[in-house]
């Protein structure tokens, strides 16, 4: 069983989501399917598919115009929330410490956070990939937790770029994350790979040790692209 999570980013409408849910309802799979969609679509009946948000506020409530709290997301029936996505780190100023605060709020409200870590191209070229990944996990993941969380390794330079690291690079990153999580008492936490996953590379990526599934952006928007990823593994 793998976790196949879609990240719709700022795309689609409730009608698109309803069609996707309909299309996915006929797919035979043992994998866990999650769709992380814009807030406006969260109150959609989704059957076996888990719905998630793509971010939450780092505050609980109050005078934060335009923000959405963990409690509000949980009240829609959503079960998941992506935290610390590369685009939230780049455009909304998320840092490891705000990511950790948001993840704590997600957990406190019964959501499963999908916590993203990964290196930029500059960090990769400076030979800092492993350092950034390890500090990302140690600083972004709350300690002393007993409820499930999910980690996503997303090399930031590869997102939406049609680029992927080599299998060895993915294996090294996931092994480091798994060992770091074990050291933090979080053995067995699923670790997804994300960035330019498609039907043509999904099976190979998910055969790499410590890859518990994938987080898919562009290829999760249309069922013709998403279903081959779901059915590429069992
Ligand atoms: P991509 O995005 O699959 O379009 O590269 C992945 C992500 O941002 O989660």
SSE topology:
Blueprint: E1 3-7, H1 14-24, E2 32-36, E3 50-53, H2 70-75, E4 80-83, H3 86-91, H4 96-108, E5 112-117, H5 121-125, H6 129-140, E6 150-153, H7 167-183, E7 191-194, H8 202-206, E8 213-216, H9 223-230
Parallel strand pairs: 1-2, 1-8, 2-3, 3-4, 4-5, 5-6, 6-7, 7-8
Bound molecules: 2-phosphoglycolic acid (PGA).
Structure report:
The chain is an alpha/beta fold and 234 residues long. It is 35% helix and 15% strand. The protein has helices at residues 14-24, 70-75, 86-91, 96-108, 121-125, 129-140, 167-183, 202-206, 223-230; strands at 3-7, 32-36, 50-53, 80-83, 112-117, 150-153, 191-194, 213-216. An eight-stranded parallel beta barrel has the order 1-2-3-4-5-6-7-8, surrounded by four helices. Helix 7 (167-183) links the parallel strand 6 (150-153) and strand 7 (191-194). It starts with a strand and ends with a helix. Bound molecules: 2-phosphoglycolic acid. 2-phosphoglycolic acid is lined by residues 7, 154, 159-160, 194-197, 215-219.
């Amino acid at each position: 069983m793998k976790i196949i999570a879609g990240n719709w980013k700022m795309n689609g409408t409730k009608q698109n989501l309803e069609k996707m849910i309909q299309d996915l309802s006929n797919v035979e799979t043992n994998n866990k399917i999650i769709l992380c969609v814009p807030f406006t679509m969260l109150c959609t009946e989704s059957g076996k598919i888990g719905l998630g948000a793509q971010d939450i506020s780092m505050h609980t409530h109050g005078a934060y115009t335009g923000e959405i709290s963990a409690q509000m997301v949980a009240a829609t029936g959503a079960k998941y929330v992506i935290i610390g996505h590369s685009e939230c780190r780049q455009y909304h100023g998320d840092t490891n410490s705000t990511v950790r605060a948001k993840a704590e709020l997600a957990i406190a409200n019964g959501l499963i956070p999908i916590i993203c870590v990964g290196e930029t191209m500059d960090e990769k070229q400076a030979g800092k990939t492993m350092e950034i990944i390890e500090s990302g996990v140690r600083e972004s993941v709350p300690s002393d937790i007993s409820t499930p969380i999910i980690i996503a390794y997303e090399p930031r330079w590869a997102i939406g770029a049609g680029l992927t690291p080599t299998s060895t690079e993915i294996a090294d990153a996931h092994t480091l994350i798994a060992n770091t999580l074990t050291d933090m008492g979080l053995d067995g936490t699923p670790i997804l790979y994300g960035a330019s996953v498609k039907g043509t590379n999904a099976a190979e990526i998910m055969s790499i040790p410590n890859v518990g599934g994938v987080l898919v952006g562009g290829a999760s928007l249309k069922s013709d692209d998403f279903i081959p990823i779901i059915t590429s593994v069992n």
